[in-house]
Amino acid sequence: MPPRQRLSPEARRAQLLGAAAHLFARHPYEEVMMEHVAEAAGVSRALLYRHFSSKAALFAAMYQQAADRLLVETRLETGLPLADQLAQGMDVHLDYFTANRNTVLAANRVLAGDPVIRTIISNELDVLRERLMTVLPLADESVRSTVSDVLKSWLVFVQVLCVDWLAHETCPRSRLRDICVGAALGALRPLLGEDLIPHGESASPEAAG
């Protein structure tokens, strides 16, 4: 092993998470060992364990970092067509899912019962729901609670469908995205009205790329 480069604790942690992200994306969770991560990062196992007490803790930290990045990249803006905003959000997540298939399957299947992973996923879905609530035209406060419940259910539906798609890829990615966007528009139309979500609304060519 070459001489270890001196890094600040923050830089070392980022380096270790980067090495872990690379390995977990390319190999099933059960095949990635702590010694593999240490070797990829060019550090000793002892140093890796000083930063992360276990493989589960390392994976959770890496997955939290990924969730934070996805939230930053998912931009929702008031005034844009809802279908375009949903398509953009779907594309951001599907880009990550397809590039990190093993990581996503590990979080949603292998580690589905891990309370830390469940919290990371749940928190991300809650933030996405709140962001959608802020861009929807909810002038009538009486429907706010119902819309929130619909969005919560829709986000879970999208999560389950996308994980199944990653495992089996039963349709093209573009069709998966259109199914998810269409499901949201169809569920919200009775609550927000035909004027706000017309039947013909669809993603723009830029969002559909």
What is the strand and helix layout of this fold?
Layout: H1 9-26, H2 34-41, H3 45-51, H4 55-73, H5 82-99, H6 101-110, H7 115-135, H8 144-168, H9 173-192
Could you characterize the architecture of this molecule?
With 209 residues, the chain is mainly α. The chain is built from nine helices and no strands. The protein has helices at residues 9-26, 34-41, 45-51, 55-73, 82-99, 101-110, 115-135, 144-168, 173-192. α1 crosses α2 (34-41) and α7 packs across α8 (144-168). The radius of gyration is 20 Å and the shape is elongated. It starts with 8 loop residues before the first helix and ends in a 17-residue tail after the last helix. 27% of the residues are buried.
